[in-house]
UniProtKB/TrEMBL annotation:
Keywords: Iron, Metal-binding. This is Pirin family protein. Residues 42-147 form the Pirin N-terminal domain. InterPro entries: Pirin (IPR012093), Pirin_C_dom (IPR008778), Pirin_N_dom (IPR003829), RmlC-like_jellyroll (IPR014710), RmlC_Cupin_sf (IPR011051). It comes from Nocardioides mangrovicus.
Amino acid sequence: MPAISVDDLTVLRRLRTPGLGDRVRPVRQVVDAPSGYEGEGFPVRRAFAGVDLRDLDPFVHMDQMGEVDYAPGEPKGTPWHPHRGFETVTYIIDGTFDHHDSHGGGGTITDGDTQWMTAGSGLLHIEAPPEWLVTSGGLFHGIQLWVNLPREAKWNAPAYQDIRAKDVGLATSADAGALVRVIAGEVDGVAGPGSTFTPMSLVHASVEAGAQLELPWPVEYNALVYVLAGQGFVGVEKRPLRTGNLAVLGAGDFVSVAGDTRHDSRTPAFDVLVLGGRPINEPVAWAGPFVMNTRAEVQQAFEDFQKGRLGTIPSVHGAPTSLQEG
């Protein structure tokens, strides 16, 4: 995986291990993400399928995009689509994605970069591989996470955070056998660059075969572990996990994952996303691209979209656009 790496992990800060009175979080549920297709037809795994929204709060949805090796002409993206009431976090591990919106914003993310988009009051958005990648083909792999916004932030103006791979917080496990990339939040004093409305942490860890990673985790956060690649174990029970598995953890002070001693050459490490946050504990009304508090607010979002109030597609990217009241 070409997400940021470090040749010598011993130069990084080592995370503390559980002490007297600390509790490693147990495993409450393990689900296997079903496969599907998104946008114009790129393959995804629905990471949160089968998990109660109350166990995901403040998150509502996550797709693992790929891993797929496209032939020339095959790379695909999404058409223009609306969002309101939440944030999309797109983390590209391998490949390149362009993104544009109806306000003229946008950019390109690649190999370990993150595009953190606060949809807030609403906008139109498109994500697609650049033309050169469509022509050449190539490997594509990433995730998109939907983070709910609390009621008071759902009407904030849309905004972007452009997080580059070089800016993520880096640490290693006590045995120097795991690379920990902190994209948002904080782990044992190692902070990520992502700014969040609801306190949360998002970590991508690569755990070598046989290595053990203990992540200090705030007791008020929930905790989820999703396997991007490889095989290993999670929790005090050493529950086996493999690519596409999501583990929902119970209460405790530490998240514990370990790499299996058996790995093939294609997946030499146990790559996991560890994420969690302080639950918002508000009603969730979710339909398609809108995540609100009530059904009436969702219906209003659809009406606003249909009447052009969420913006218009620019004929030339970057050209000024204005919201129409319909």
